[in-house]
UniProtKB/TrEMBL annotation:
Membrane topology qualifier: Single-pass membrane protein
Name of the protein in its database record: Cytochrome P450
Metabolic or biological pathway, per its Swiss-Prot or TrEMBL entry: Secondary metabolite biosynthesis
A cellular-component GO term for this protein: membrane
Keyword Ubl conjugation: no
Amino acid sequence: MIDLEPAWLGLILLGVFTFYAAKRGLRSTTGIHPYPPGPPMRPLIGNIMEVGSRYAWLKLTGYKEQYGDLVYFQGLGKSVLVVNSLKAILDLLEKRANNYSDRPVLIFGNDLIGMNRTFLFADYGEEWRAQRKLAHAALGPSAVKDYISMQENVSIELSRELIKAPQDFYSLIRLAAGRTVITVTYGVRSASAEQEFIILAEEINRVCQKAAIPGAYLCDFVPWLKYAPSWVPFQRVATYGRRLLDDVLDKPFKYVQKEMDTGKAVPSLVQHLLSDPPEAVADFEEKVKRAAATIFACPQIYSVVLAFILAMAQYPEAQRSAQAEIDRVVGTDRPPRMEDMPDLPYVNAVIKEAMRWRPTLPLGVPHRSTEDDVYGGFFIPKSTVILANVWAVAFQPDEKYEPQAFLPERFLDPAHPTIDPAIWAFGFGRRICPGRYLAENSLFMFISTLLWAFDISPPASGEIKVASKEYILRYDTALAPICLMLIPTNT
């Protein structure tokens, strides 16, 4: 008789069950509603591993034509539902938010790194609600008005630095975007501390973006693998990620506390909350620390500004139209200000198109169902991971405006309306990003000031070679080979 380890035997039986479930037509346990359609199943592993493949959003978008708005994956005891249309995304994540506001159970991300300590990945419950309340109070539409002057100054300073070193536009934009968020969140003034904290944010983003994708690490599907020895490669990554997260939570927070103790702290989100704490909030400092770290680590501003610069070099007619509008409304004697935003519709359309053209998070941040559900005649089991495929939304076929082209005019055509990317770029339902108003203001200031100050052109060779799938802001993607020219105009 063959002597099999119980865990391996269980895995084999689970795979056999998964395979035969697929052969029987993917009927739910209710016997009434089928599971949503999906790719063919394979013995032992089902089709679940496709979700974690490289450039998964492209493959998953391709499945939309074959399977529709809902594409279902299962195997190894897990299930993932990819949602390919905005209507279905909003129906589930907003209209049924009570059932779809939780985050996935991530063995690698939560058990090994501790990502659920942050507001972004925290389980849906009282702890998360307390953190959300703090974040929304400090970053609501009225509160962000206090940061406008700082955002205008950072945008002007970026232009000055680009005049001195236009070849360093990647690093300068990265620092400027990080400076905005870190100043608002922690009031950091020290250049050395600022640089250290920005590097921390980038590193934790790189680790967590991969860890948040179901299937990126096998231990998410085979939980007992989390007990693997420390020398196993994914365990080394987890140890590194856990140290990074500890630093992201603690170091900027302690910086503010030290500045407050010496009377040097400048106004910031953390300084404001610590100076005037609400009554009867248990573990208040820990809640502030976790909410602040989530806002601090957001990559949205940097990603969209890079997409904008690349687009201006490739689509000079859009750049000229935006610059003409700025010259007409603002003039050449001063840079744009936040108060100019309502009078610059084409510039606003350029910003929207930059968000659409290169989505920062093409599959969003995963949600999870807390109860069984039925949608569109299909059964969605409890604890199914929901991936909002915003890439499919951004590049849905359009008979008038080519999806792959950069065409701001699509947002200025009332006869042929296009979905505003702000609807999907900052998350959905109760999990929507609390920093979206701050991000939208920063994007306007950075992009309008760059249009006012520079002509953005291809390099002398005239060639820009970037495949669309390679220009997502993922920290393992090499962007350095792209060369552009930034030529000062109004200085």
